Amino acid sequence: MTKETQVSITVIRRLPKYYRYLSELLQKGINRISSQELSKLTGFTASQIRQDLNNFGGFGQQGYGYNVEELHKELGKILGLNKEYKAVVAGAGNLGNAIANYGGFKDAGFDIIGVFSRYYKDLPFDMEGLEVRDMSELEDFIKDNNVDIGIITTSKDNAQKVADIYIKSGIKGIWNFAPVDLVVPEDIVLENVRLSDSLYTLSYFLKGLGK
Amino acid sequence: MTKETQVSITVIRRLPKYYRYLSELLQKGINRISSQELSKLTGFTASQIRQDLNNFGGFGQQGYGYNVEELHKELGKILGLNKEYKAVVAGAGNLGNAIANYGGFKDAGFDIIGVFSRYYKDLPFDMEGLEVRDMSELEDFIKDNNVDIGIITTSKDNAQKVADIYIKSGIKGIWNFAPVDLVVPEDIVLENVRLSDSLYTLSYFLKGLGK
Fold first, then answer.
1. Residue A42 confidence (pLDDT)
2. One domain, residues A132 and A186
3. Are A32 and A102 part of one and the same domain?
4. Which of A107, A134, B15, B102 has the most CB atoms within 10 Å of its CB?
5. Same domain for A97 and A191?
């Protein structure tokens, strides 16, 4: 799998989409699919799909296409979805609540085992089945439980402070929802969700419609 | 602005990031920036930045760089952020609540004027200052108020039904958070937020760290 290290981020960001479509095909009991059919589903060209998947090994067979179950399983491994991750959420507002209670993440191997808030006056409180702890306990909790992923759903102003605690406590991946560019060391995996960027893209295309 | 129609989606998705950085520079009182300095901030190469911005006209001047205020204003116009949009949210769970109450959207011209839920037994209820209405009123509300954008924060199972109501009522843009591929006519702008795709990308890079 040495080839994998050279794969561009653009290709990698397409993999979850392939994985999602393959999951749906599996649910429908479809066992085999050509790159042309995958193209119709995903909106990527057939040659793009073949090229993307060839980065990770030869999955398809000429004249047969792809075995859906096998490709789904392999893509899952490539994405690391055959592993179990422990995650914590910092920021127990609406967004933190939404993320902590979304069942889909647990099904995919991401187990949110703690939620933390700095509003200690009202803590601990119960948030739809999850106990919310005081932010001062975050560092010890991460170390005691070998947490892999730190999720940030705090305000913009508190996000870097939380990131610093995550880094200090040995977390390897940060999933950041706060609208701020965090400063993290190179060996920390940082993935940002930029809701405004998505909304502005929508706005760009609406403008094209004459709005 | 006929040139604009040929611009690729990849370039367009970078514009909100430029806009975000320019907003921050403006706040810091910085009036002028070179493509090299913008490169350090954004992580894109200087030539990429010049190429991206040239798609929309000649903003920079050789030897001077970019005027931050002017470029910010022009990018805002290109993204349609100089306009006011009316939006509604369908789905009044945690995520709907988070979206409806996020002040940053209103500041950027996106005004969420209604929240709808199908859990009519408990409706209308007050959700942090927003009255939540019954889903059966959605269609009339959109028509009466000339709503531009429909946001979907329902479950996967209800998302297409809501999209159909949006389309029937004359909404032009859909911002979808439900993990499902909606079927919409070509003249509807559909922007999806795929939280799982982002999490899987994080997982991919964590795996590279030996997790």
1. 86
2. yes
3. no
4. B15
5. yes
- Three-state SS for A9? helix
Cross-chain CB nearest to B200 (options A16, A99, A193): A16
Task: Collapse the DSSP code of B108 into the 3-class scheme (helix H, G, I; strand E, B; otherwise coil) and give the result.
Answer: coil
The tokens of A201 are what? 């893209």
B79–A208 CB contact, under 8 Å: no
Binary contact (A199, B191; C-beta < 8 A) = yes
Q: Are B190 and B162 in contact (CB under 8 A)?
A: no
- The whole-angstrom distance between B65's CA and the closest CA on chain A is 23
Phi, psi of B108 (to 5 degrees): -90, 5
- The DSSP code for A118 is S
User: In this structure, is residue B210 part of a structural domain?
Assistant: no
Query: Which of A206, A199, A204, A95 has the alpha carbon at shortest distance from B151?
Result: A199
Same domain, yes or no: A126 and A42: no
A1 to chain B, any CB pair closer than 8 A? The answer is no
Q: Does A188 touch chain B (CB under 8 A)?
A: no
Domains identified in chain A, total number: 2
Of B193, B199, B211, the CB nearest to A83: B211
Tokens at residue B28, please?
């810091």
In a domain, B181, yes or no: yes
Task: Write the DSSP assignment of A43-94 as a string of letters.
Answer: SS-HHHHHHHHHTT----BTTTBEEHHHHHHHHHHHTTTTS-EEEEEE--SH
* Residue-level pLDDT, tens digit, chain A, 211 residues: 444 557 888 899 899 999 999 999 999 999 999 999 999 988 889 999 999 998 888 777 777 889 999 999 999 999 999 999 999 999 998 899 889 988 788 888 999 999 999 876 666 566 667 789 999 999 999 999 999 999 999 999 999 999 999 999 999 999 999 988 899 999 999 999 999 999 999 999 998 776 6
Spatial separation of the C-alpha atoms in residues A173 and A177, rounded to whole Å? 13
